[in-house]
What we know:
Low-confidence stretches: none
Shape: elongated
Distance between the termini: 44 Å
Oligomer: single chain
Strand content: under 5%
Mean pLDDT: 89
Amino acid sequence: IYRDNIIDKDKMESCAYGIQITIANMINFIIAFGIGILSKSLTEITLFYGVFVSLRFFCGGYHAKSYGRCFSLFALTCLIYLA
Length: 83
């Protein structure tokens, strides 16, 4: 997008961060709803996901050292909720 003159060079870092966060949120969505579908608990996981995302938006949260660890901990949190 920089080469196509859509954004300035000084905004590249912000755009890269936004893209990373968007992809991470999409992966979390897929994880949550994948677990919900596999466990036949789609209604429960939808409720959990809505509350979790809202709470994380307003309160922040734990910041794992890597995206892999973050996704693993989120999946574990979903599984614990459904247990």
